Amino acid sequence: MHPASVVAAEGFPSGFPLLPQPAEMIVGLIAFAILYWLVKSKVVPNMEKLYAERTAAIEGGMQQAEEAQQQAQAALEQYNAQLAEARAEAARIREEAREQGAAIIAELRGQAQTEANRITEAAHKQIEAERQQAVVQLRSEVGRLSTDLASRIVGESLEDETRQRGIVDRFLADLESGSIKPEKVGEGA
Amino acid sequence: MSLNVVPLHMLPAVVPAAEGGGEGFETPGVANFWWPLFGGDGAFAFTRPALVLLISVALIAWFFVGATGKLSLVPSKRQFLVEGTYNFVRNTLGRDIIGSKDFLQFLPLLFTLFTLILVNNVFGIVPFVQYPTFSRLGFPLVLTVIVYLTYHAVGIKRKHGVLNYLKSLVPPGLPTWLKPILFVLEFLTYFVIRPLTLALRLMGNMLAGHLMLLVFILGGEYLLLHGDNIGLKGAGILSMAFSVGMTFFELLIEFLQAFIFTLLAALYIADAVSEHH
Q1: In tens digits, what is the pLDDT along chain A, a chain of 189 residues?
Q2: Predicted model pTM
Q3: Which of A6, A12, A41 has the highest number of chain B CBs within 10 A, making it the mutation to test binding with B?
Q4: Hey, which of A44, A104, B57, B239 has its CA 20 to 30 A from B160?
Q5: Scanning every residue of chain A, which has its alpha carbon at the shortest distance from the alpha carbon of B33?
Q6: What positions belong to coiled-coil segments (chain A) (predicted)?
């Protein structure tokens, strides 16, 4: 096993300086054993535990990030849904407003029409009334004028007679009904 | 060799180029690496590299066990360094080679190998230590024996018995006449060549690298101090300057050898763990 030990008597490497020295091999074995035991019982378990912890931490972080992403996704979807809803709502409201506007316009138009009709009606009535009044007034005026005229022509006042207005009125009624021509009145008078 | 009996002169910077009279240059050699501290001069003398190895164990234990005692999810500077080293061994050397199913049980072995070899190699250029522990064959041999036993034990266990393990050395689907030849080759590879190269590669690299530094520094010093003319003195300065560059190169080799040793150990174990050869 140790060929060196044969030569080892005096000045170990005498003649064979490269041969392994038993004492060094023993020390080497002991040194290796100590270090191996320390590495096996302390360094490797501690490091592997650290790695496991780190992996767990990273995986935990990744899971957390995934959850956060899912939450963000859900929030985005909710937001989009709300946005779509809001858009639909806005469109609906706009539509409604348009309809309402149209209804209001139609109503107003109807009202205006009615008002206009009413005003026209009132005007017609007023005109009719005024015409009636004018006719009545004219009638009395014409009666007076014709009486005056006649009295001037006759030379005496016919007023007493005309007080009995029946004549003039009757005459005028005849005139209106067309049974007497105005010329005839002149001739006849 | 007078240096053998004057071990204190091992420190490259202190080694006198020539003792007494200052005549003649004693070439640094393999014998310079023998440096007993106490317990005589024989097979069971306690040597300086053995002390360095023990110191390195204390240092590694303090650094890694101390740091992993109070780990936090958010690493501190020291923990960052610890994690970087651990990750490198765990993922690059362990998981990627042995496979994510089995690597964890071999991780302590790989981590111990890598840190122990790396620190001891780097000790080769650390001031006041300046001794690559693994240039002494005894140390890499011990580690190789451990790796050797591990991968054979795992192989025998995984292949269900010694006989099946030996059978699995020959790849399936070969013509019958080729099988014995290949078996001999594979057997030599698994049982002789792998451990031999694993131990000697590390030892040889460390020894040769350090010896080269010794030659350049001691030679440069000798030329500078005892050179007859300005040319030789200049060559001495040049040699010393070159040794500085070589030192950085050594650092690379030291890391690389620690990496290669652990990588090969992982490859051998991965080979044993795998279902087929």
Answers
A1: 334 333 333 456 566 777 888 888 999 999 999 999 999 998 899 888 888 888 888 888 888 999 999 999 999 999 999 999 999 999 999 999 999 999 999 999 999 999 999 999 999 999 999 899 888 888 888 888 887 887 777 766 666 666 666 777 777 778 778 766 655 544 444
A2: 0.67
A3: A12
A4: A44
A5: A17
A6: 58-103
